[in-house]
Amino acid sequence: MPQTQDVLFRALADPTRRAIFERLCRDGDQTVAALTARAGVSQPAVSKHLGVLKQAGLVRDRHAGRQTHYSAQPKALAPLIDWTSQMAGFWQSRFDDLEVLLKRMDQ
Amino acid sequence: MPQTQDVLFRALADPTRRAIFERLCRDGDQTVAALTARAGVSQPAVSKHLGVLKQAGLVRDRHAGRQTHYSAQPKALAPLIDWTSQMAGFWQSRFDDLEVLLKRMDQ
DNA sequence: CTAATCAATAACCATCGAGTTATGGATCGC
DNA sequence: GCGATCCATAACTCGATGGTTATTGATTAG
Question: Which of A33, A69, B34, B74 is the most buried if burial means most Cβ atoms within 10 Å?
Fold first, then answer.
């Protein structure tokens, strides 16, 4: 899913958005008002950020009366982990190839 | 280093830039011309992307005559890995707390 | 020496995105 | 019911950014 990776990376690229996600990971369930209180931006801005995070699958929302609770969905980070280890893996394997090559040249 | 994370996430947020980095991870050392041939954008655009990746520490450049070779520096991904596992960790620990709490309530 | 190639920079343009204020639609407290 | 509160959406602004073409400096080839 290259599309998924794109959405993920883009969602996490913004510092305000990343801070909101971090907060949800640390402290769990939060209402929009609670998040807004610490976000340093207006409530509509927070709502928009939450929308982006939700599209990326990073958060879930739960409606309770007139307030909406959001919670982190860290499983959504999986593609990011996969991508990262894949990049490291490619590098590693090329390094191994180099090792083999050097060893062969050594004989 | 929250600054570092920011630079990293932003550098990897752009698909063209991520593709360049992926290519360098897969295939190793590449000249700007070689990267441009596959990038789907102009040479100056590629140079700019390489500049951003370099600022993030994700690539290194090596000058050889009139051409510049770039190579991936996957160690620079470390802060990204740290951040990710930290987020997963926070979530996990809260989950553990919940487990404990539930067990206590169970008695 | 001259022409050609490579990559970086300059200058510019268009789009995107993060922020704002204003507003509306639900829901709760009284 | 009525005013207040919570959150989402609309409409807009503005700076950042990704793209382009043009150019220049450096190096190589002939």
Answer: B74
